[in-house]
Amino acid sequence: MASVEQLTLPAWLRHQAQHRPHALALRHKRLGAWHASSWQALATTVERLAAGLTERNFAAGDGLLLVSQPREQALLLSLAAQWSGGVAIPLDPQLDDEVLRAAVLHLKPRFVFAEDDRQVDRLLALSQHVIDANLRDLPAHPHPSVIDYRTLASRRNDAFAPVAHEHGDAFGFLRVDEDGRLVEQRFTHAALVHEARHLALAEKLHAGDEAFAARGFAAAAQARYLIAPWIVSGFRLNFPESLETRDNDRRELAPTLVAGTRETYARVAQLVDDRLPGRRSWRRKLIGRALRKQAGFPERTFTWWFVARPLREVIGFSRTHAALVVGAALDDKTAALFDALRVDVHPWPDAGNWQRVTSASADAPQPRHPDDASPAQPAY
């Protein structure tokens, strides 16, 4: 049972670091190799990043906008912002310039995080402080308003206790609705912790599980059904090298927890179809009979061992015991295929309290903090 102090994500992060310091918490792939962090190392890094943000005048209630795909740096910065009492706001890097401008105008973040040079250039004109991921370890960006991620963490050794409040916002999300307007929803620490504990109980999640973060980082379901349950349950979270390599990386890991959308599972189902031989082959016929539930017990057993089980290994579902589809349910064809592969996909809602905030064609944003803003400069 959570104590009063464990009603925020940073409090749960400290809890994991104190009780399971050497257990693996996070793995990310870079240049073809997996890199791992323990709960203790993760909490230490987040604490130092939070202190670094605070030293740069990031305060409780401030926003940190993250324009990034799923990657380690974006996650750590999100947790650091929450540690400091702020809110992390992941944003889809594929949004066009006009929508990005409207989002920054509405959010007025203290900092923005950019995953690559293109995003740095887009964001420099929209905010006073840009944190550059610098994934290729290049020399620091020459623009004075750019902070290299490698230099953000505080060098001080004194402890920096979390200042997050259970009723404070932990994550915020924006998207464009069908009418072309920006809509927003936010989740408090208490709400995320409550949902995470409910999910862990319903799906029997535990510290030995392996989760795979393949969805877009800016998806609200990522925070609700992956990040918060990871911190509360203490399992391992794995980030692929990129969205392009996610299928190979998932096959390599064989995670026990997979969360995706209807489209995610349809794409994986297409991978299965691509792996099967021609329509007259015995393997495809066996799967077809299994899909139509026409096979008897001996045939079902044979199909499992010689067709379905190898296919589960190919798509990285060989160990999966918790397969979640967030939002719309699977279409009949995809649902039948995963049923034939003996993958029980459970639906979880993705409905949220989306509120319209502004038109997607807003004026150029002004600095959130004019007192400490440097003169406007052109993007590098």
UniProtKB/TrEMBL annotation:
EC number: 6.2.1.26
Region of interest (Disordered), residue spans: 357-380
Protein name, per record: 2-succinylbenzoate--CoA ligase
InterPro entries recorded: AMP-dep_synth/lig_dom (IPR000873), ANL_N_sf (IPR042099)
Domain AMP-dependent synthetase/ligase span(s) in chain numbering: 13-128
Gene name for this UniProt entry: menE
GO molecular function per UniProt: o-succinylbenzoate-CoA ligase activity
Pfam families (UniProt xref): AMP-binding (PF00501)
Entry keyword Iron-sulfur: no
Domain of life: Bacteria
Organism: Burkholderia anthina
Record key words, sorted: Ligase
